[in-house]
Structures are given as C-alpha cells and as structure tokens.
Amino acid sequence: MKKSRFIAVIMLAAIVFTFVSCEKKDPYANLEIDVEKFALDLRDNGKFLEELERLDDKNVPYVYDIGTPDKIVVYAGSGATPEEIIVAQFDDAAARSDAFKKLNDRLAAQRKTFDDYNAQYRPLLDNPLVTEVGKYLIYCVSDDAGASQAVLSRYTGK
Amino acid sequence: MAEIIIRFNKKFGGTICCILLVALLFSITVTTTASTHGQYNHGIANDYMLAASVPLESEKPDTPTEALVLPDYLVPRSDGFILPSAEELARYATIPVPEDIKTDDDITAGGRPVGIPESGAVNDSYFADALFVGDSRTVGLMSYSGVQSCYYAKVSLNIFSVLHTEFITLPGSDSMVTVLGAIEKNPVFKKVYISFGINELGYNSASFINAYEYFLDRVMALLPNAEVYIQNVFSVTAAASAKNQYGVNNDAINKTNELLAELARKKGVSYLNLYEQFAGADGTLDTSLTSDGIHLNKAGVAQQMQYIRTHTVN
Question: What is the DSSP letter of B296?
Fold first, then answer.
C-alpha cells in the first residue's frame, strides 16, 4: 500500500512537472520594437558623458562586425569614451546568438583598451546594459545603466 | 483517482515505475532548459553587471616574457608599454625597402610636393582602393565620414603598438592579424593614409619618429605602387591644451608635425596638412567641432573628410 501510494504520488508529480514545464516559453518571442525609436530613446533619455551621434547605416558594418542584422542602429561618440548604443534585430536565432557573443567580445576588448587609454572612463564599462530581449540585442555603455534599463523597461516591461 | 492508479499498478507496477522515472527526468530537463532561457532574456544584463567585477582573462596586462632586442633607434619607453617583439621586427626587416625613395634634393628639385596643395574634390569612389590606418581619430573618420573604404584603425593604437597589435580579422579568416600582416595578405591598396601622433605626444620624440619611419618603410615595401599620405596631427582646443593630459598640448603637436613633415620629405611621400584645416587664429581647435577637445565630432569629421577629398595627388 505504501509502495503503491508512493508510486501514485510520483506519477502525479511527473504529470504536473511535465505540464508546468511545457508552459514555459520566451515571453518576448513576439515582442516588436521600433529599433530606430528605441535607440533614439536610449540616447535621449539615458545618461551619457559625451554627445552620441548616429552612425551612417552604410558605415556600421565597417565599425561593428556582428554579422548581418535585419535592422541595426548605432549611436557612438568621438572615441574619447567607450559610450555607445547598439540596438540590433536578428530574426534568426543562430545569427543572433553569434552576434551576442561578438558584442560580449567587443565589451571585453573595450575594457582592455580603456584600462590604460583614457582610463578615467574605464568605470563606464563596469556596468553596461548588454542584453537579449526576444529577437533584439541591446548594447549600451553609458554613465548610468539604471537610466538605460528604465528606457528598456518601457519597451519590454522587464 | 489514486485508487484507480493503485489498482492499475498492482498489475504493471514495475513497468509503471520505469516510465515514471523517465518522465520525471524528462520534465526536470525541460524545466531546467526553460528556466535557463528565461534567465537569458531576463537576467543577462545582471549577469554582466556581476561579471564586470571579475577581471576577464584577456584583461590581464601583457608582460614581456623575454628580453626584447630592438634596433638602436627604438628607445624603450617607461612603464609597461608593449613594444614589438624582436621576432616581429626581424620579420618585417626582411622585406626589402624600395631603393628609389626620393631624397631631399629630389624634392626641392621639383619632386613630390610636401604639403599637398588644394585641388578639386575627388569623388568618394577615389577611396575605394584606399587604406586608412590610425588611432581613435581615424576610428572617428571611419564612423562618421560616410566614405566606404578600408580602415585599419583602433582606439588607443599608436605607432609602437601598430607593429604588434593583432586586431584585424580578414574576410574568410577567424584569426586576427596586425596592420602590416593584413596588408601583406591583401596588398591591393593604391592609396594609404597614415595618421598617428596624438597618442604619442608624451613619448620621446626620437622614438616616435624613428618608429614611424620603420612602419612607413614596411608599408612602402608592401605597397610599392601606392600613394602614401602622412596625415599630420591637427590641434586640440585651448582647454585641452592647457589641461595637458598625457602630454597633449598644441606646442607638442607643432613639434611633432615638424618631424612628420621632415619624414615626408625624406621618404618622398605626401604630407597632408590637416593642421591648417583645424587650427584657428590662435592655433587651437574650434570647440564646436569636438566633444572632448581632442576628438572630432560628426561635424568635425565632415570637415576632415572634405579636406582629404580636396588634397589629393593626381
């Protein structure tokens, strides 16, 4: 009897676990963001030490080798600081994953560069907003990650 | 429902147990995967905020592992600055330097002009087979000029580190190479614009100009038919000059430019006098063209590129 009850409990637990796990999906899978508007919002409502200007779309691939996004908008400074905004849309998950790795490689490279080049701005790289939300990649180095996160939250609810 | 299950299990108890164990393991696996994916979307920013406090392997400072044997004219600077290895220098030294480099006499006798005079603006297609090499100021050119060309430029790059810093990934390759390595693999450029000097103002000037000559020799050997332009160093704002951070001031810039002009004469290459474009009446950079007093903003880069378009050789 005890054995039977034990087995029954296990069986019920397995059914419940399976049901619950099947329910977990990416809540942002269907999220649609206006990339241009979002990137501009990040620039205008984030906090930056220098003025960021939008890179010509045709020059973006020269500066940022992160694959071929479906849409990308970049705001960058003069090079004096590591501040920049990259918002990219990748519909293909594999391409997005590869691009995300490259963004993290860029972050690592920037940290190394600013260790002794304009080192007073190195702390900006300690608290970047680097994230993947649905089909979008966001890379934002600013003077206030909280302000950037607040902008992101308005678009994603995160 | 429990009674039904119990009765059923009396007949098929063992089998049921196996099935349940498999189902349980499967559900645990699915649950773990889903929560990881969710974390990927929700917590990655926090992951990196936490990770930021842990130094990455690549952030550990380079330290030379062996004594460097350098040519006499490369005077080592102080504190940990990475100089090219003896192997790199030896390798590049085997590339023959062109013998037909013009001398001072050739220049004064009507040879290649120094300080290119203004000419008609070239179309941007002129730069399709050009190469721009330099530091953060060239990165700015790459970012904002709108000119599609080849840029081997990196923030913080200088005339010493350009010889050994591998930061260029060529198409079809996963590994990174140096500027000279990239040119060697792909010697297609017909014009080369070189821009260094702002990051080296605090250095021994003899070291700087000798390293520049060394680099120039290698470029000219790899691209014997290319038009080479040495871009001089344009000024900084009065405030940046007064601040004198890392030795950056307009007096030092003027001295550096004298050395660069002399080098251009010696080597018979073109000297692009960007300084005259940006130096105001007081010799300083207009504050409206820069965000930090040293680097050009988009408006400044537009002026820089227009100067380059209107100062070409043939």
Answer: B
Tokens of A133: 């939300």
Q: Is the pLDDT of residue B138 over 80?
A: yes
List the one residue out of A44, A43, A42, A74 whose CA is nearest residue A58.
A74
Q: Is A4 inside a domain boundary? A: no
| B211, B160 contact by CB (below 8 A) | yes
- The candidate with the shortest Cα–Cα distance to B147, out of B130, B134, B168, B133, is B130
Q: Copy the structure tokens of residue B176.
A: 């990174």
| pLDDT at residue B134 tops 50 | yes
DSSP letter (8 states) at residue B1: -
Contact A79 B61 (CB under 8 A): no
Can you say whether residue A64 is alpha, beta or left, with left for phi > 0 and alpha for psi between -120 and 50 degrees? beta
Q: What are the backbone dihedrals phi and psi of residue B17, each rounded to the nearest 5 degrees, phi first?
A: -60, -45
Q: How far apart are CA A144 and CA A127, in angstroms?
A: 8
What residues of chain A, 89 to 148, have a C-beta less than 8 Å from chain B? Answer: 104, 107-109, 111-117, 125-134, 145
Domain span including residue A81? 28-156
- Residue-wise pLDDT tens digits, B204-248: 787 788 889 989 999 999 999 999 999 999 999 999 999 998 889
Residues in chain B within 8 Å Cβ distance of A10 = 17, 20, 24
Contact A63 B31 (CB under 8 A): no
In whole angstroms, give the CA distance from residue B48 to residue B87: 38
* Mutation for testing the A interface, residue in B150, B291, B304 having most A CBs under 10 Å: B291
Name the residue facing A7 among B9, B142, B154 (closest C-beta): B9
Tell me, yes or no, whether A89 lies in a domain: yes
Distance CA B26, CA B32 (A): 10
User: Given CB atoms, is B191 within the 8 Å cutoff of chain A?
Assistant: no
Question: Per the structure, how many domains does chain A have?
Answer: 1
The Cβ of residue A40 has, within 10 Å, a number of other Cβ atoms equal to 16
Residue B29, amino acid? T
| Chain B hits for A130, Cβ within 8 Å | 44-45, 48
Give the integer Cα–Cα distance in Å for B289 and B285: 7
In which region does residue A45 sit, left (phi positive, over 0), alpha (psi from -120 to 50) or beta (all else)? alpha
Q: Note whether residue A7 is domain-resident.
A: no
Q: If you ran DSSP here, which 8-state letter would residue B299 be given? A: H
- Residue A69 lies inside a defined structural domain of this protein: yes
Tell me the C-alpha distance between A109 and B58, whole Å: 8
pLDDT in tens, A129-146: 999 999 999 999 999 999
The pLDDT value recorded for residue B171 is 83
Q: What is the mean pLDDT of chain A?
A: 89
Report yes or no for ipTM above 0.90: no
Residue A42: its pLDDT value, please? 97
Give tens-digit pLDDT for A5-14. Answer: 777 777 777 7
